Amino acid sequence: MLPRLRTFVLFLCTCLPTLALCACQPKAGSEHLPIPDSTPETASSVSSASVDKLLLPDGKDILYRAELCPTVMSLGEDVADIARQHLGIRYRRGGASPKSGFDCSGFVYWVFAKYGVSVPRDTVRQSRAGQEVARNDLLPGDILIFRIGNTPNGRHSAIYIGDDKFIHSPSAGSRVRIENLNAAYWTRHYMTARRVLETPPCDLDLYSSPDTVD
């Protein structure tokens, strides 16, 4: 082999692996989508919804599973939004509409009915509706039950809206308002919480396409 050719071959064998390695390094400041099969530390900080992407049939927009399939959290936030729209409505014993006013169970009943979910009208049955939820697992839209008075059936119901807050129609002479669940009075009278919201079946095949992103 000629000396010049030998030198050129040696150069290729020495430099090409280095160049290939450099080409594979990410550029500074570039962003990368999280990888589902990452280390536990990384995976724990990224929800499953954030890595489950679907490409729309138009091939342009990407939606996340959470945008296509509602969760109990998202449903509950919708319920909480409806409840907040009626802040200031006066209390009325036996009332169950914005025009007439609300008692506590009537407010809970009406808000869920407005959202299309049927719940019992009275506090005793509301305290048995759906599934029981531990206090540290509360989500927006959960029904809170407090023990009020000295009778076995003395109950007061409200709607949890998140961040240790709930909304309710308290008592005669008051109006629908937001309270802190951690206040001493409510902590002392807290009885249980019930979850009546359920996520509907979600068929992702309705949204998928041949270009679905893995």
UniProtKB/TrEMBL annotation:
Pfam families associated with the record: NLPC_P60 (PF00877)
Entry keyword Iron-sulfur: no
Signal peptide: 1-22
GO molecular function ontology, one term from the record: cysteine-type peptidase activity
Recorded superkingdom: Bacteria
GO terms, biological process: proteolysis
Alphabetized UniProt keyword annotations: Hydrolase, Protease, Signal, Thiol protease
InterPro entries per UniProt: NLP_P60_dom (IPR000064), Papain-like_cys_pep_sf (IPR038765), Peptidase_C40 (IPR051202)
Family under the similarity heading: Belongs to the peptidase C40 family.
Protein's recorded name: C40 family peptidase
Species the sequence originates in: Mailhella massiliensis
